[in-house]
Specification:
Shape of chain A: globular
CATH topology of chain B: Transcription Regulator spoIIAA
Number of helices of chain A: 3
Order of helices and strands of chain B: EEHEHEHEH
Number of helices of chain B: 4
Number of domains of chain B: 1
Structural class of chain B: alpha/beta
Number of strands of chain A: 5
Helix content of chain B: 40-55%
Structural class of chain A: alpha+beta
Strand order of the largest sheet of chain B: 1-2-3-4-5
Oligomer: heterodimer
Distance between the termini of chain A: 41 Å
Radius of gyration of chain A: 15 Å
Chain lengths: 161, 118
């Protein structure tokens, strides 16, 4: 059962074309296994660079999304196809990434202290992105991450990055 | 990004180097932990984790490094990191980890730091 918060997905594995994300939001379905993390990161990196974020901002987006996808793989529950969702949308003001799974993820107590061994995921996401939302609905859990273009590390592509 | 690989090298009775190539995420973190534990249990009290060829590190891998640092500290040892990628360095700095695990630009610098602390 799909969340009403998400549009219908394209076929699994549909690649994001360099230079444009197209007019419609695209969702990638990933097998919920650790070896897919590198696929998710590469997908997000291509998208962030394509819409004009510089390398520092792109790394921040990739890092934050990696944390959310890792949480979904570790603590979430894949859907009946064994996958989790990675949806990327962009608009004039920034980039939004939504990571979805079918579980009822409850985040551990955030711990941003230097000597913490666990619990840093949400601390990092909140520090690196402009907006982090955790949405729990009957169909599962969504983590929505947004980075705006007008931050100190974003540009509109005019710098030729 | 390239796949990850991890190598271990013993320098002397005290110092060992664990070098990572590729990325360090939830997929790779267990291998890093095993390598660090192997070195510690073999008697190395001073570990150099060389991340010069690592372009990505996540909070799981950071947790492994912190855990190893704590364990080494119990017997008077420590762990330092070689880091040349500014994105990786920024992650350490974001949560103040660079004050807990010292960062160096090269293996020589890292090993020299151990010698100075002796």
């Amino acid at each position: 059962m799909r969340s009403p918060h998400l549009p219908e997905p394209l076929e699994a594995g549909t690649a994001v074309e360099a230079g444009s994300l197209g007019a419609l939001p695209r969702e990638l379905r990933l097998p919920a296994v650790p070896s897919q993390l590198v696929i998710a990161r590469e997908h997000v990196e291509r998208a962030a660079l394509a819409v004009g974020f510089d390398h520092r901002a792109t790394h921040e987006i990739v890092f934050a999304v990696n944390e959310a996808v890792t949480n979904a793989i570790r603590h979430g529950r894949p859907d009946e196809t064994g996958t989790i969702g990675l949806l990327i949308e962009h608009d004039r003001d920034g980039l939004t990434v939504v990571v979805s799974d079918s579980g009822s993820f409850i985040p551990s107590i955030p711990d941003g202290s230097p000597m913490a061994e666990q619990g840093r995921g949400f601390v990092f996401m909140s520090s690196l992105m402009d907006q982090v939302d955790l949405v729990r609905c009957p169909e599962g859990t969504l983590v929505r991450l947004r980075k705006s273009r007008n931050g100190s590390h974003a540009n509109g592509g005019d710098d030729g990055v | 990004m390239s796949a990850f690989s991890i190598t271990k090298e013993t320098i002397d009775d005290e110092v060992a180097i664990v070098a990572v190539t590729g990325y360090l995420d939830f997929d790779a973190a267990p291998a890093l932990k095993h390598s660090l534990v192997d070195c510690i249990e073999a008697g190395s009290g001073r570990l150099v984790v060389d991340l010069a060829q690592t372009g990505f590190i996540d909070s799981t891998a950071i947790g492994v490094l912190v855990g190893a640092q704590k364990r080494l500290a119990e017997s008077g040892g420590s762990l330092v990191v070689v880091c040349t990628n500014e994105n990786v360095q920024s992650i350490f700095e974001l949560v103040g980890l660079d004050e807990v695990i010292s960062l160096h630009r090269s293996r020589d610098d890292a090993i020299s730091a151990f010698a100075r602390a002796a």
